[in-house]
Amino acid sequence: MKQDNYLLNTLGYLAITIGTLITLLSAVATLNVLVDPFGINWLVAKEGFNAYKPAMYARVRLYKAFEVTRRKPQAIILGTSRTHLGLRCSHEAWAGLEDRCYNLAFDGATTREMYHYLRHAHAGSRLQLVVLGLDTYHLTSAPSFTRPDFDERVLDSPDGRLPGQFISGKLRLLVNMDTLRASLETIASQGHAEPSWFAANGQRLGPVFFHREGEHFLEFGPRAYFDEIDRLEVGFQTEGVARAPVKRSRPPSTVPADPEESSLAYIQRIITFCRAENIDLRIFITPSHAHQLEIAAATGAEPAIENGKRELVRLLAMDASRHRDLRPIRLIDFSGYSSITTETLPVVGSRDEMRFYWDSSHFKEIVGDYVLDRLFDVDSAARPVPSDLGMDLTSDTVEAVLAWQHREQFAYRGRSAADVHKLRSLVQAAAVRE
């Protein structure tokens, strides 16, 4: 009898504990749904309660995973922070699709992440057009990885294999303690809202982002900020990904055991997927400032970059041979030395902004407009594209383009000897510290 009472009491306590746990999880989920710190559902948007969502800006991969599903675009832009900042959906290139275009680029995007986000976007709304912006470090046989804040569990798949995973991933976020912490911080931050640098179409608004209170661009001035990014870039290219900040880190330099997992392999997967789904794909190599090119040359990375361009051309040539009845996928290289990428820096101590660049990595929207003009053959009398910006890369042109870029590099080094010497000195000093 005593044993029966003990068992009943134990079961009673267990039932109470389970009930309490369910109640707590329900309360947490309800609060997280209402506050919605990452901008997942937007069921409630109330000033003074949750209208300002600071956590959303720190979890861009997560935010965009749900936002692209909510907006159901038919045209998307893939790339890193350069493309996130520089390309707008209001450009004439998107004629007829302006309201169905979404900038799905984000900081430090790898080709592996781009591939999964492409599939995710296509699962939510059948895509017609994709613009893919590649940085030179994507063109490598090094393994393509994912960043710590990448979560495949919240991504859908067009083949229908992962809907349960997608749903469970969203439910997991609702009862997650990190989400609860972000919800409480969201409520507490409502009196300290900053201007939003997110456009509704996913673009990062440079004039808002770089002019935020406390941002180094505003605090130091454009020239000092440019120099700071140069120093950081030297660190990224000489120290490797392990010691670099997540938001601007570079891939590891090791050779992958499985070439199918390389960065170039995931570009191939993007190409193959777009062909299979009848998606118009346009590819460009981003136009960083010449300082980035000189840092790469000083670290010895230049030959690998050129070989990466050759390999990408080879992949596209193979694709064209398999689809002779379709238009070849266009690849334009904006990464060379041009009148835009060699823009002169303001003098030391100046607070004047550059016309084309925020820093040596990130170009302004006008340069993004030039990119889209060239990719889509848009002829704007008010915005003529410099003739030396952007070269089509094909099997027939790649060697000539690379040779031309070497000639322009030599000319730039003659005009900007002091800048080149300073960058080489930074790289040498970093190598000594290593």
Query: Can you count the helices?
Result: 16
Class from helix and strand fractions: mainly alpha
Portion of residues in beta strands equals 5-15%
* Total beta strands: 6
* Strand adjacency order, main sheet: 2-1-3-4-5-6
| Mean pLDDT reading | 88
Q: Main β-sheet: number of strands, strand sense, barrel status?
A: 6 strands, mixed
Rg is 24 Å
Series of H and E elements: HHHEHEHEHHHHHHEHHEHEHH
Structure overview:
The chain is built from 16 helices and 6 strands. The protein has 434 residues and is mainly alpha-helical. The chain has one domain. A 6-stranded mixed β-sheet has the order 2-1-3-4-5-6, sandwiched between helices. Helix 10 (222-239) packs across helix 16. The relative contact order is 0.12. Residues 241-257 have low confidence and may be disordered.
Describe the structure concisely for a colleague.
The chain has 434 residues and is mainly alpha-helical. 49% of the residues lie in helices and 6% in strands. The chain is built from 16 helices and 6 strands.
Question: What's the SSE blueprint?
Answer:
Layout: H1 2-35, H2 54-58, H3 60-71, E1 75-78, H4 81-86, E2 101-103, H5 111-124, E3 129-134, H6 163-174, H7 177-188, H8 206-209, H9 216-220, H10 222-239, H11 263-276, E4 280-285, H12 290-298, H13 302-322, E5 330-333, H14 365-376, E6 391-392, H15 398-415, H16 417-433
Parallel strand pairs: 1-2, 1-3, 3-4, 4-5
Antiparallel strand pairs: 5-6
